[in-house]
Design brief:
This protein is mainly alpha-helical and 251 residues long. The chain is globular, with a radius of gyration of 24 Å. 31% of the residues are buried. Helix content is 72%, strand content 0%. The protein folds into 2 domains: 112 residues, no CATH class; 89 residues. It contains 10 helices and no strands.
Length: 251
Amino acid sequence: MTADLPDDDIEGTRSALAPMLAAAQAVLPWLPGAQPARFAPALNRRWIAAARQLAQTWSASGWRDMETLRRAMLALYQVALDSADADCIALGEALASAVDQLDTGPPSARLLAALSAALECFGEAEGLEHPAFAPRARHFAQRLGDAAVAGSGSPRSLAIDRLFVGETEERLARMADALAALPADAVLLKEEAAQIAEQAQGIELYGLMHLARQLAAQIGGATDFDEPRTRARLDGLLQQLRQMLAAVLPG
């Protein structure tokens, strides 16, 4: 035992082990699992639960129960927005668009395969912290987008997307000013949100459409803009719209 060793031997042992301990400490940060979490644990738990619920809903009823499927998809999409992660938001947008396309007619085999593969992939125990999450999210966002285009026969127009982004950025700036005003301009806020939703639907950006409609629904005659929680909630929705808009254009 160490207590029985002479002091000189103890110091000699410590000196001999020092380089080994230093090397081990240098390597530890590079070992799998030693990296700090990228997301808050509560957010990751929400993602795992929402991803599993969406996968179970899809497995149980597919597109035959669109109301339940859309509700489960929006729950996952909300977590993606809360993550403020570009890859996660892009995946949520792609899933929202794919699910909404199921309403337009019989889904193609390619779209069904892309949805099934994506939903099987993201309910793992590590959730957002899975080492391969980011490349998987990019892969399935692209695959879902390609399947949706192949099914609709109408590829996205970069020029139209750029025009939409420019106009929507201006609308969001006006909405931020309207919310910051005293008193807040509820009419302008609601009108601009409705316009964003309508234009987003026209170019099949369904995630943006749903979020803009959600913001518009928060505003009514009884909305108390002097209540800090109300302003914080609307500010949060505006920020989510900005994040989602930033993911529309490639690069």
